[in-house]
Amino acid sequence: AQSVTQPDIHITVSEGASLELRCNYSYGATPYLFWYVQSPGQGLQLLLKYFSGDTLVQGIKGFEAEFKRSQSSFNLRKPSVHWSDAAEYFCAVGASMNYGGATNKLIFGTGTLLAVQP
Amino acid sequence: DTGVSQDPRHKITKRGQNVTFRCDPISEHNRLYWYRQTLGQGPEFLTYFQNEAQLEKSRLLSDRFSAERPKGSFSTLEIQRTEQGDSAMYLCASSPLTYTEAFFGQGTRLTVV
Hints:
Chain A is an all-beta fold. Chain A is 0% helix and 52% strand. Chain A has no helices and 12 strands. In chain A, the strands form 3 sheets. In chain A, strands 2, 5, 6, 10, 11 and 12 form a 6-stranded mixed β-sheet that branches. Chain A has a 4-stranded antiparallel β-sheet with strand order 3-9-8-7, with no helix packed on it. A two-stranded antiparallel sheet of chain A has the order 1-4. In chain A, a hairpin with a 5-residue loop joins strand 7 (56-58) and strand 8 (64-68). Chain A starts with a strand and ends with a strand. In chain B, strand 9 and strand 10 (103-104) form a beta hairpin. The A-B interface holds A 4, 34, 36, 41-46, 49, 90, 92, 94, 97-99, 102-111 and B 4, 31, 33, 35, 40-45, 48, 55-56, 91, 93, 95, 98-107, 109.
């Protein structure tokens, strides 16, 4: 069964420090991978996605992620964190549905809550 | 294009009451999804529409839940005889037929007291 694991429930970093959020997935085929960010009481905003091609993906707000098939990982990174990055981050894998066709529904990890210290 | 819109944003209801939520997807998006998110968890898939057809339902969607998308545009999610365990954020998302990403609404926060 498809699944996503985010091993870090809560991470605190200092403003200006680098950040890496971990994500491991389980999926039989080549996965479609996503990172979303959620501010309190809000919906989800897409940071970046990987479908194929270059395994290093650039996203919005200075984030990037690297797909490593051998490690089944898709870790999110940012070289210098800003206070406004404090939020919850979700990794997701796109899973095909029973009737076939393109990837549709998303399977999410449990999220990593990022706190940023001044 | 104003994005995915959900109404209401917040709903407090008494146990046993029925509630209905509305989702207006991005216009011309054929695909529409409902997810549920409980505190401290990631969103969980509930159901999927392609145009007006409901093509998949999660086992999470008990008999008390029903969703419709009558004209292939907006969708409603109804919960009958609400229970405290139904308290959650209900998220709607839409995407074009050629899937690239899902665009999420801001969600409806349901509290059952």
